[in-house]
Write a structure and sequence with these properties.
This protein is an alpha+beta fold. Helix content is about 25%, strand content about 30%.
Length: about 130
């Protein structure tokens, strides 16, 4: 099921759980989940929103171009340009950053919005040493 505002896609499972993806903020995710539940309710199914929780968040940003070959010598890095053009950096257990030479970074595995900013500050200090 897709909703236009807030732009979200929802999957309704047989167990009754609804998984919403594609929103830009926690508030939009909550609103999207409520709208999806309301649509299912209008179809005649009993709906009671019980446990709304954020499973995982992703964040993307772009900084300056980087020397990935030099950065790959750093600990917790995995980089093989023949297989994948991005460097995978494990920031902490469960949180990974995929870093490209253009400076694009995709962070995944974060559970709270505050963690995104904390991880960005940590990564940014390291990446300034590998600026192209």
């Amino acid at each position: 099921m897709r909703i236009r505002e807030p732009r979200t896609t929802a999957v309704v499972y047989k167990s009754g759980k609804i998984m919403c993806t594609g929103t830009k903020s926690v508030q939009q995710a909550r609103l999207g989940a409520r709208k999806c539940a309301r649509k299912v309710q209008k179809l005649g199914f009993p709906v009671r929103p019980l446990n709304f929780k954020i499973q995982t968040m992703t964040a993307k940003w772009k900084i300056f171009p980087l020397h990935l070959q030099r950065f790959s010598q750093h600990q917790n890095c995995s980089y093989d340009p023949e297989l994948f053009p991005g460097l995978i950096y494990e920031v902490s257990p469960g949180i990974t950053a995929t870093i490209f030479s253009s400076g694009s970074i995709c962070l995944s595995g974060v559970k709270q919005e505050a963690q995104i900013y904390k991880v960005f500050d940590t990564i940014y200090r390291i990446l300034t040493c590998f600026r192209r």
